[in-house]
Write a structure and sequence with these properties.
Shape: globular
Oligomer: single chain
Number of strands: 14
Radius of gyration: 23 Å
Structural class: alpha/beta
Largest sheet: 7 strands, mixed
Distance between the termini: 56 Å
Number of helices: 10
Strand order of the largest sheet: 2-3-1-4-7-6-5
């Protein structure tokens, strides 16, 4: 049976996510701002949760109505056959987002949706599920525009960028799905040399190593759909085993990371170990300005320090031209990609960006600047 789904993702990655969903077997794919709508069966839904590197979660559409008041949304919530999907022992959380909704209080909308769900269960089961805002079994998402309300049941649970291993805590970490998206935007392919010269906690390195070894990003975790009443455990185990069987092995990969801060390199080592990638990536404590290229050509990708994260003002502006000089001096033949919220970064580096791709990093309006470094490159 074909169901309708919506997969949110970081803004700017929608076309790449659409490709991923097609590869997972979607029968209809419609990119929109902030995500991709699709259709597929439950094997497709399981596969997206297991395989998607770019989606934030996969939402299953369970209700839709036009509305003019909170009571119409309550009636929609009470009419969905929730008891077919989960039970009163499962805890719930309701998330409401809106664009141009005329209703004054989203908190009141959230309350009415909760009332509708609980009233449905009381009528069917004689009891109601409890609310758990921290670690719910079931997440219900409502999206309101000017005239319509859509209800979704979250098949993922924890966001999909949480790959299932405990990461070392670092300042301003880059979310895994954004890192994977930037790697795809760069055109990097497994087997090519990859360098992150300001690797921090190693997010780019881990995502690249998992791509190189064809490790499905969801293999190390559980999902909300495993608690659905209609969960097909045999189908799910077959999909997981197929993913495990295709994993590749390698003693080491042409993937390199460096950071000026030895503590960050230690964090990257710990995270690689937690992801089962010990020894697969070469790490070095080194200032990017002194770093030698590990190969004659390759892809350099980084989320460098910028005002919101680490530095600001004159210190940062003095550093940018030094970074540009280091690239021209040591990385001729490399394609370099930098994620930054500083839209003047390319100009300050004295390099001409061949491409500027808009991306949202959380609430930050960012760009991925592409620099194709050639010998003797002139400043722009």
């Amino acid at each position: 049976m074909t169901e309708t789904f919506f997969a949110p993702c970081p803004r700017g990655l929608e076309p790449l996510l659409a490709e991923e969903l097609r590869a997972c077997g979607a029968t209809r794919v419609e990119p929109t701002h902030g995500g991709v709508a699709s259709e597929g069966d439950w094997a497709y839904a399981y596969r997206v949760n297991l395989e998607s590197r770019l989606a934030t979660r996969l939402l299953w559409k369970v209700g839709f109505t036009r509305y003019r008041s909170e009571e119409e949304i309550y009636r929609l919530a009470s009419s969905v056959a929730w008891a077919r999907h989960f039970d009163t022992i499962n805890t719930i959380r309701i998330n409401v987002t809106s664009i141009k909704s005329p209703l004054k209080s989203l908190n009141f909308v959230t309350l009415r949706i909760k009332d509708g769900i609980c009233d449905h269960f009381r009528a069917i089961k004689g009891g109601r599920p409890d609310v758990d805002t921290h670690s719910p079994d079931m997440r219900i998402h409502a999206f309101l525009d000017e005239q319509t309300c859509t209800l979704y049941l979250d098949t993922s649970g924890e966001p999909l960028y949480k790959r299932g291993f405990k990461r070392a805590k670092v300042e301003a970490p880059l979310k895994e799905n954004l890192a994977a998206g930037i790697l795809k935007l760069s055109g990097w392919q497994p087997g090519q040399t990859l360098l992150d010269p300001m690797c921090g906690s190693g997010t780019f390195l881990i995502e690249a190593a998992q791509m190189a070894l064809d490790i499905a990003p969801g293999l190390g975790r559980h999902f909300a759909f495993e608690k659905f009443r209609q969960f097909d455990a045999e189908l799910w185990q077959g999909i997981r085993k197929a993913a495990q069987a295709r994993q590749r092995t390698a003693d080491n990969l042409p993937i390199f990371g460096a950071d000026i801060d030895s503590r960050q390199v230690s964090n990257a080592e710990a995270n690689l170990e937690a992801a089962g990638l010990t020894g697969k990536v070469e790490l070095l404590v080194c200032d990017v300005l002194d770093l030698e290229a590990p190969d004659d050509a390759g892809v350099l990708v980084s989320n460098p320090p910028y005002g919101v994260r680490l530095s600001s003002g004159d210190e940062l502006y003095d550093w940018y031209p030094k970074l540009g000089d280091a690239l021209k001096r040591g990385f001729a033949g490399w394609n370099c990609y930098f994620l930054t919220a500083d839209l003047e970064m390319a100009k300050r580096m004295g390099l001409k960006a061949s491409k500027r791709t808009p991306l949202m990093n959380g609430d930050l309006d960012c760009r991925v600047f592409e620099f194709k470094v050639v010998a003797g490159q002139n400043r722009s």
